[in-house]
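Allow me, if you will, to draw on your knowledge of protein folds for a short while. I have a record of one protein: its chain in single-letter code and its fold written as discrete structure tokens. Kindly check, if you would, that the fold set down in the tokens agrees with what the sequence suggests. Thank you for your consideration; the sequence and its tokens are set out here:
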Amino acid sequence: MSSRLVGVGVGPGDPELVTVKGVNALREADVVVVPVMDSGERGRAEATVSHYVPEEKVVRVVFALNERSDRARREAAWDAAGARVAELLRVHDAVAFATIGDPNVYSTFTYLAQTVAELVPGTVVETVPGITAMQDLAARSGAVLTEGTEPLTLVPVTAGAAVLKDALAGPGTVVAYKFGRQAHEVAEALRETGRLADAVWGSALGLPEESVRPAADLDEAPLPYLSTLIAPARREGGRGGKL
């Protein structure tokens, strides 16, 4: 039988937000791989997994998670990580990979699965969905993501503040991920498009250092890299106005 590689979304950091299916997938796997930065520090995925599986079952694999500029270095890290997981799949029937948020939304798991599929042909790849940071921030802040026929646009600000500004100029709610290093540019884009008043940002959701604040509080100081912003749609006409 083919080995299985299962990408498990473990949510944005709060261990209570891992789904029952996600917990079962972690516990049923022979080993659970967690991504770590080359500095070796413990990441959110590993911290969350530790609530559900014993330490001896966890395999830490280095990824260049914080590498944005050196593509060669980043891809070399992906190759090394894929080779390590391929080794595990050759001796285990089921390997789980824990990723923050959802494995199909801006996840390292995507690159890992592509690499492993080439190294271990026939590997069955599965995913278990996880709760995303935008869902958690909406719940913690009271921001409504969508109503009626409103669109929802998700933008990684690593693509540039101009991409965010274009999205804010359109209709519907805009969510921005990974904007901490460009907090000042994000605040400017919100002001220029008239979307600042109702917007909210959050970081370290569900963790002791959690911060959930109005976007109007943004200044020039950088925020944690994994910060999330919600700029709700402009809503007029009362209840059900956009049905």
